[in-house]
Design a protein that fits this description.
Layout (H helix, E strand, L loop, with lengths): L2 H24 L10 H12 L5 H9 L1 H21 L6 E3 L9 H23 L8 H18 L2 H6 L3 H24 L23 H28 L1 E3 L5
Helix pairs in contact: 2-3, 3-4, 3-9, 4-8, 4-9, 5-6, 6-9, 8-9
């Protein structure tokens, strides 16, 4: 296929997407209207399954299969990063030099570390009840560990960040989501169908499979962010090419 033909194929594809977007935009309810068909249905289904946070109900129940795709994209990104940023033959690892940190930065970072970690875990645990969830809480929890890098130095971060454990946690979070979805098949329905008892509204055990899938996402996201940052930080701080300082 020539370059001109490829260009025409691209333009036809873009025109088709543009037409679909325009058609969808013309059907959107007017701004400020009190009629929200999709929102009303989402809230109704969330409450029917005793999930107080309607967004969590959408992510982990009504469109849980889409969320599996999003989680898998992150998992694949981590896997690709680990492969691409592994230590090459012409590189060697050097111990990072101790860093000098000002007292106020050290003090406040160390104070915020446990607060941030608890906040992240709280957001994950209450994902089906309040705004937030596994995606947001996982990022917050992973960020908490890296406050030690800011407060002390990279060696201190490495002591509390065994990468093998977080790599296993990343895979375990992905596997937990997949296995939880199989409960629907065992119950004779579709994959990722919410088949567990819905519990009592506004309790941690409410929502059926929603809190389980939310927790799996939280584990996967937290471990994935730690592994991603570790690989990039290793390249910046510890990995050097042979003869770089010769």
């Amino acid at each position: 296929m020539s370059r001109r033909q490829r260009l025409w194929v691209l333009l036809l594809g873009l025109a088709g997407v543009a037409a679909l977007l325009v058609a969808a935009a013309l059907r959107i309810p007017a701004f400020g209207t009190d009629h929200h068909p999709y929102g009303d249905r989402a809230v109704h289904e969330a409450l029917a399954r005793h999930t107080a946070n309607a967004i969590a109900a959408v992510n982990f129940d009504q469109r849980a299969f889409d969320t599996l795709g999003e989680e898998s994209i992150l998992f694949a990104a981590v896997l690709g990063t680990v492969v691409l940023l592994r230590q090459a033959r012409d590189e060697h690892q050097v111990a990072p030099a101790p860093a000098r940190v000002s007292a106020p930065v050290r003090r406040y970072a160390l104070v915020l570390l446990p607060v941030t970690l608890v906040t992240g875990l709280y957001i994950v645990a209450h994902g089906q009840l309040t705004p937030g969830g596994g995606f947001q809480g996982g990022v917050v929890a992973a960020t908490a560990l890296h406050l030690l890098y800011i407060a002390v130095d990279y060696r201190a971060l490495e002591r509390i960040r065994p990468l093998s454990v977080f790599e296993v946690g990343d895979a375990a979070g992905e596997a937990a989501y997949l296995i939880t979805g199989a409960a629907g098949l065992l119950a004779g329905t579709a994959y990722l169908t919410n088949v567990l008892p819905f519990g009592t509204l506004d309790s941690l055990a409410s929502g059926g499979t929603v809190p389980l899938l939310n927790a799996a996402i939280g584990m996967e996201v937290a471990c994935a962010v730690v592994v991603l940052l570790a690989r990039f930080l290793d390249q910046a701080v510890e990995i050097e090419e042979e003869g770089e300082h010769s």
